[in-house]
Amino acid sequence: MSEEKAATVVEAVTMTDGRVVNFAGKKNMVKSSEISGDAIAVTLDFRNGETRTFLVPEALLGKFAAHGAEQKLGDVIAGVVEVEDCVLAVDELTAQLNAGNWGAVREKGGMSGTSVLIRALVEFTGKTVEAIKEYLAGKTQAEKLALRNNPKVKPIVERIEAEKAANKKTGTVVDTDSMLDELAA
Fold first, then answer.
1. 10-residue mean pLDDT series, the chain (185 residues)
2. Are residues 52 and 76 both part of a single domain?
3. What per-residue confidence (pLDDT) applies to 167?
């Protein structure tokens, strides 16, 4: 039997400047920012009604921008295990950011296993990595999982994953095809 998650309690707090700010759950601070021309102000509202506004010094704009970019690009790989999937997640985010799309939401686990799927589809279709990446870019995690489990692709996926597991154990890349050729000779 599944227990339903309790609804998050939201407390409306009247700030010292008269605004009402909602604090969800145990959150003690709500952050917001405003950009007006070259001026950037960050407002920090606290559950006790206090408010602080920080005006970003013009001389530090580059450092703040760099910090934010590092954070945004680092956040996209949270929970991603395979380094190849990390690279794909960062590539996807940078493409979205370069297109001017800041708020694209990544599906939970959206890149998990994608690098293996890309390798399998490259092998299956003979197409380039770039062509497969472009094809998969618009697919949901459910669609990618279905492709991985397709009877034509699944054996390739399983072989690639087995090779990756063997390589992790030995710490080196093992050319099993050469080993089989050697055995057959």
1. 76 95 95 93 96 95 93 87 83 88 60 73 87 84 88 89 72 70 80
2. no
3. 65
Its pTM stands at 0.56
Say whether both 38 and 87 belong to one domain. Answer: no
The 3-state secondary structure of the chain, one letter per residue: CCCCCCCCCEEEEECCCCCEEEEECCCCEEEEEEEECCEEEEEEEECCCCEEEEECCHHHHHHHHHHHHHHHHHHCCCCCCCHHHHHHHHHHHHHHHHCCCCCCCCCCCCCCCHHHHHHHHHHHHCCCHHHHHHHHHCCCHHHHHHHHCCCCCHHHHHHHHHHHHHHHHHCCCCCHHHHHHHHHC
Q: Which of 154, 119, 157 is nearest to 136 (CA)?
A: 119
Q: Are 33 and 43 in contact (CB under 8 A)?
A: yes
Residue span of the structural domain in which 35 resides? 10-56
